[in-house]
Input
Amino acid sequence: IDVKFEGPYGVVGLPDHHLDNIGTMLARALDDAKIVNEHPHLFCVGIGDWIDNFIIGFLEKVRRKNVMSHSDSWRILEHYLDLLYPSLIAAISGNHMDWSTSGGGYDVLKRMFEERGLGSIYDTDEIRVRLNSPCGTQFTHLARHKYRGNSQYNATHAITKWILESWQGEDVVWGGHIHTAGHVSIQKQYMGQSRVVHGVQLGAYKKHDDYARREAFRQNTPFLTPMTVHIPETGKSLFFDDLTDGIKHLEMVRKDMGFVV
Output
């Protein structure tokens, strides 16, 4: 993906959405989408589970308890994507969305992205994108909904394991699925140079979860919509656990370097 402007920019991580769930902060999700879309120097990554999509087995019975119909759930997702899609650089379906395609079903989410010209940045499992700045610097992002090897004590365990064992030069590695959040910075050697890789485990907009309470899952979401700031002129990547703080720093460093804010 070619970045069309000079100077630093940010990439926001959007957590598991579950936009149609009664326990989801829908207003917050829509507000975040508007902020990202309206900022000229922001991109974003969607990590998956855009709606509950309860359509199989016992989960279909769970859907009957929802206050929203299945068709309205997809309509809300379409509205959300219309707000967000110009800024998306990577999108993963997630296991909830994959229920639609299990057994040979039709991938409606893929069609939505293709209609908006984003078919190339969507995948059911894994997507890797390289952002090319006008000055020649490149930053690479990897997004997966799920990684192997979770730990109940460390939210970033699976992503850390991936970076240590399967890293292929990425600057930022994003993950979701487990509804817990965390960040890890790992130093790697690449092409004779030392680089810092940011592993970001994203939580969920879904904040009230009867299933998690029943199963006694430990709540651990110290942040919701983090972002990385890339500075092509220096090759540095910085992590901020809050979208607002990240934007403040991005605008400050762009101003200090003489770029348009």
Summary: The helical segments are 26-38, 57-63, 70-84, 95-98, 108-115, 157-166, 210-214, 243-256. The chain is about 30% helix and 25% strand. The chain has a mean pLDDT of 91. The CA atoms of residues 49 and 96 lie 5 Å apart.
